[in-house]
Amino acid sequence: MSPAASSGSFPSEKDLRQAEYFSNRLLKNEKILRKWAKSKDIGALRLYDRDIPEVPLAVDLYRGEVGGEEAPALVIALYERPYEKDEAEEAAWLGLMAGAAAEGIRAMVWQRFILPEMTVFQAKNAYGHGYPWSIPGADEGVDYTPSRFPCALEYSHKHISVVQTLRAPNGLDIAEKAAEGIRKVFTNLDKIDAERIEAIVKAKK
C-alpha cells in the first residue's frame, strides 16, 4: 500500500490543513513579490515552488489586462511524487488545492480572453528585459495580433466554463443541479435584468 493510500473520506483533516497552509503561503509570497514585480515591470511570477514538502506544486501567476480590466491567471503544476497516488484521489486533492489558490489570490478564469491578448504577450516582456522574446531567434515571425486567432476569439467570447463544480469529490447529483440551473437561465433570458446584475457585481468589487 502506498503512503497516499487512504480508506477515509475526502477531504481529510490532513487535506484541509494542507490547503490552509498552501493558501497562506501563496498570500504571503504574492504580498512580498507584488511591489517588486511592479517596479521591474514583470508580468509573470513563480509564486510557489514546493515551498511546503507536503504540497509538491508549482504555481505561476501571469498578470494582464483585457478591455482595461485586470485579468490575472494562475497556472498550477504538480511535481512527480516519490510514491504512487490513486488517480481519483489525486484529482480530488488537486481540485482542493486549486480552490485554495483561488481563495488566496483573486484570479479570473483565463478563458475569458485568449493568451495573445494578455499584456505579457503584447508587450513581449514576461520576466523582465524582454525575456524570453529577447533571446536570439525567439521572436522571429512571432505575431500576437488577436485577429490572427479567430477561432480562439470566438470560443473565448461564447463559451461557458463550469469546472470546479464538476470535479471530484462532487458527484452526478451536483452535475444535475448545475445543468438544471443552466437550463433555468437560458429558458428565462427575457426575464434577466442585466443592468441590476452588473450593478451588484460592481458593488462587490
Description:
The protein has 205 residues and is α+β, with helices and mostly antiparallel strands. The chain has one domain (13-160): Transcription Regulator spoIIAA (2-Layer Sandwich). It is built from six helices and five strands. The chain has helices at 13-39, 87-104, 119-123, 150-158, 172-186, 194-204; strands at residues 44-49, 57-62, 65-66, 69-70, 73-78. The strands form two sheets. It has a three-stranded antiparallel sheet. β1 (44-49) and β2 (57-62) form a beta hairpin. It is globular. Mean pLDDT is 76; it is low at 1-7 and 106-110.
Describe what is shown at a glance.
It contains six helices and five strands; from the N terminus they run H-E-E-E-E-E-H-H-H-H-H. It has helices at 13-39, 87-104, 119-123, 150-158, 172-186, 194-204; strands at residues 44-49, 57-62, 65-66, 69-70, 73-78.
Topology:
Blueprint (H helix, E strand, L loop, with lengths): L12 H27 L4 E6 L7 E6 L2 E2 L2 E2 L2 E6 L8 H18 L14 H5 L26 H9 L13 H15 L7 H11 L1
Antiparallel strand pairs: 1-2, 2-5, 3-4
Helix pairs in contact: 1-2
